[in-house]
Amino acid sequence: MLVAGNWKMYKGTSETVEFCTALAERLEAIDGVDVAVCPPYTALAAAVRTLAGTEIAVAAQNVHWAEEGAYTGEISAPMLRELGVYGAIVGHSERRQYFGETDETVARRAEAGLDAGLHMIACVGETGPERKGGQTEAVLRRQVSVLRPDDNLVIAYEPVWAIGTGLSATPELAQEAHALIKSLLEVPVLYGGSVKPENAAELLAQPAVDGALVGGASLDVESFVAICEAAARTPR
Ligand code: PEP
Fold first, then answer.
1. Residue 108: how many CA atoms within 13 Å on its side-chain side?
2. Cβ–ligand 1 contact at 214 (below 6 Å)
3. Each residue's pLDDT tens digit, 65-89
4. Coil, helix or strand for 117?
5. Any atom of ligand 1 within 6 Å of the Cβ of 197
6. How far apart are CA 153 and CA 130, in angstroms?
7. Is 92 tagged catalytic?
8. Considering only CA atoms, which residue is closest to atom 8 of ligand 1?
9. What separation in angstroms does the CA of 103 have from each of 6, 109, 132, 145?
10. Is the CB of 63 under 6 A from ligand 1?
11. pLDDT tens digits along 103-131
12. Domains of the chain, with CATH numbers?
């Protein structure tokens, strides 16, 4: 089980140090779950420093496909490695929706991260209209088909209609989508989309759910810890 917290564009350096210090204390006694936090780029170094010597990993929210070059505003995998960062998310629906990310750019970013030795979380998921239009399977097949299996690759199934809406997928619906994804690529699949302490246990109990990618509820130490505890309690 892996629980990763996607902080999006929240928390600067000082809040990151405060959060990571508290998180490390609260998770010290918990076994049976891998935990990662994904702060904004500017707070990565502080998170790595604060969590050094703990089991909690630090991942970025994106990574570019080139090692270096004329790509204003981008960050490469070797730059993340140099900071001591463990991995990165790619293809989050907010990147696809607001920043023109496509299946092809997501695949290139994932590939570059894997080649550089990063652990990658590649996000996939259908929009509300795609689900209503009966296109969920086709969308997931298309998004997953560009990714290659790798020991360091994890997929996050994040139905876009469930992200930040408070409306999570039902456990049955998550199970169905995860089973499909796993039939296409043999990698762990995290569920993301309004995961909270109240619904974490039943989502994580599904056999094809290997953990959670948590947005809003990862910004508060207590709610994030409660989700990590639910994961640790889930039999596997
Ligand atoms: C996310 O941003 O990856 C996410 C799942 O957000 P939330 O948990 O807030 O829905």
1. 9
2. yes
3. 999 999 999 999 999 999 999 999 9
4. coil
5. no
6. 25
7. yes
8. 215
9. 20, 10, 21, 9
10. no
11. 999 999 999 999 999 999 999 999 999 99
12. 2-233 (3.20.20.70)
